Amino acid sequence: MSQEQQTLLQQKITFHGAGAMAEAIVRGLISRFVVRPQDITMLNRSNQKRQEELSTRYAVHTGTAAHSLDHLAASPVIVLCMKPKDAAAALRELGPLLSPDQLIVSVIAGLSIRTMQTLLGRKQPIARTMPNTSSTIGLGATGLAFSEEITDEQRSTVMTMFEAVGIVTIVPEDKLEVLTGISGSGPAYVYYLMEAMIAAGIRGGLSSQQSRDLTVQTVLGASRMVQQTGMEPMKLRSDVTSPGGATQAALKTLDEGDFFENVIAAVNRCAERSREMGAALEGDLK
Questions:
Q1: Domain 13-176 falls in which CATH fold?
Q2: Tell me: the pLDDT tens digits for 129-181?
Q3: What are the sequence ranges of the domains in the chain?
Q4: Is there a contact between 117 and 148 (Cβ–Cβ < 8 Å)?
Q5: How many C-beta atoms surround the C-beta of residue 58 within 10 A?
Q6: pLDDT tens digit sequence for 54-64
Q7: One fold for 13-176 and 185-269
Q8: Is the CB of residue 77 less than 8 Å from the CB of residue 12?
Q9: What is the distance between the alpha carbons of residues 274 and 286, in angstroms, rounded to a whole number?
Q10: DSSP secondary structure code for residue 243 in this structure
Q11: What Cα–Cα distance (Å) separates residue 205 from each residue in 128, 146, 247?
Q12: In this protein, which residues make up the domain named Pyrroline-5-carboxylate reductase catalytic N-terminal (predicted)?
């Protein structure tokens, strides 16, 4: 089957901002044949070298937002990937250009739908998203929340876009911070655990490479076991924990440090901090 036959979204998409997350989404859209490269435009503020890299790597159109206002006005889907500090000016400039049926997809952390619509000066259809860094390898977990103005077709478009880089979960907007605490920042918790496991191996006499390889494979295997068997982590943990054995001794040590509750507290604190940062950002934009 040809690439054109496999393409799912027959519409043009413009990325307003061309950083790492924008590139991850574009890579997924193209590699999964969801959107044709010629239907994607990536705009940044002024970095011509970055534009050239993206154009060469993905065969997409590139340019600067300042010189592409007509293009933004005509794009059915606009993905906002700029830094939060640049969001207010970009949204205020974008608002007067839009028609009522243009879809705005936000990848800006902490910026609510209500604030974006206020800055746009109109009740534009908006999808607010919270992807994570694993999207760069097609294994992301993205939370989605939609404004009331979103149509079924637009909702389907957003779902298709982010399914190209992993799994998606639709939540009420006020739950996006909880999702941030689990999947948005979650990779960092796993990396931290991996750091500790690698350090333990090295201190125990294994080489750095041996410790790394064993840790990476162990985390990968454990994750795949949960995914492929459909079994609960608690059951899988129980199956490898013999009474009085080495694994039980290890878990007892973790419990003495209140490992389980500390992870829950970390997720909650991440969500709380996300709310704090969002409130501060919105305060600064007013």
A1: Rossmann fold (3.40.50)
A2: 999 989 988 899 999 999 999 999 999 999 999 999 999 999 999 999 999 99
A3: 13-176, 185-269
A4: no
A5: 18
A6: 999 999 999 98
A7: no
A8: yes
A9: 19
A10: T
A11: 48, 52, 20
A12: 12-110
Say how far apart CA 6 and CA 130 lie, in whole Å: 27
CATH code reported for the domain at 185-269: 1.10.3730.10
- Model pTM score: 0.88
Sheet holding 166-170, edge to edge: 61-64, 40-44, 13-16, 77-80, 103-106, 126-130, 140-146, 166-170
Per residue in 21-56, pLDDT tens?
999 999 999 998 999 999 999 999 888 899 999 999
Cα radius of gyration (the chain): 22
Separation of alpha carbons 75 and 41, rounded Å:
9
Rounded-to-integer distance, Cα 32 and Cα 123, Å: 32
User: What DSSP element (H or E) covers 41?
Assistant: strand 40-44
